[in-house]
Amino acid sequence: MRLDRFLSETTPLTRSLAKRALKNGEVELNGEPIKQAATQMDPESDTVRWQGEPLALVGLRYVMLNKPLEVECSARRGFYPRVVDLIDLPKAERLKPVGRLDVDTTGLLLLTDDGQWAHRITSPKHRSAKVYRATLASPLEGVAAQSAVEQVAEGLLLDGEEEPTKPATLTLLSPTQAELTITEGRYHQVKRMFGALGNRVESLHRASIGELVLDANLPPGEWRELTADEIALF
């Protein structure tokens, strides 16, 4: 691997800044100052230091975040903070959300730089069930509640769609608190499903994906890396 590439992979430096750091004598390879960006090195056996600090390649990361309100899953900087800005890891910007949550939706969000792992979760073939808890604008009770449960189980035709939603499970925790389990990830699906039922979602929280449940000890805005057993769930 080229030394400038290694630096850009292991530090906040861009490729051009890595070349500048080399020219400025800030980098040592196996104890010797190196200024040539094209110098080849072996990440497994060579020792590289930048400004005296040893460097190592970042492996694949798997992160659970309790996403708070008014934080967005976009890679671009906009009006709201980005979820990656909450993650204090090297090269956090390389972490990609595994399925998005709206800016006004809270709860379990997974981030990773392992594209194959992310695909296994989001692929329609695997149908990882996602559980959402919604606060509704209008109460669902009696006959209306039973009808809503049955319609969700059969599949709802959403506005602008030609195919109904896959069978899902609606559990009413109270007249205005509902738990919805879906296996798809259509645009604003949960909100649109309740809209198709003549209701409106006032707040939405994702509780789990597949067998992975949001850590109850993780406050909003906090994160932790997944355990090996959690990673193996997908």
Automatic annotation (TrEMBL):
SMART domains listed in its UniProt record: S4 (SM00363)
EC number: 5.4.99.-
Superkingdom of this protein's organism: Bacteria
SUPFAM superfamilies in alphabetical order: Alpha-L RNA-binding motif, Pseudouridine synthase
Similarity annotation: Belongs to the pseudouridine synthase RsuA family.
Name of the protein this chain belongs to: Pseudouridine synthase
Keyword tags: Isomerase, RNA-binding
Function noted in UniProt: Responsible for synthesis of pseudouridine from uracil-516 in 16S ribosomal RNA.
Matching Gene3D superfamilies: Alpha-L RNA-binding motif, Pseudouridine synthase I, catalytic domain, N-terminal subdomain, RNA-binding S4 domain
PROSITE patterns according to UniProt: PSI_RSU (PS01149), S4 (PS50889)
Pfam family, one: S4
NCBIfam families: pseudouridine synthase
Catalytic activity: uridine(516) in 16S rRNA = pseudouridine(516) in 16S rRNA
Domain RNA-binding S4, first and last residues per copy: 1-59
CDD domains: PseudoU_synth_RsuA, S4
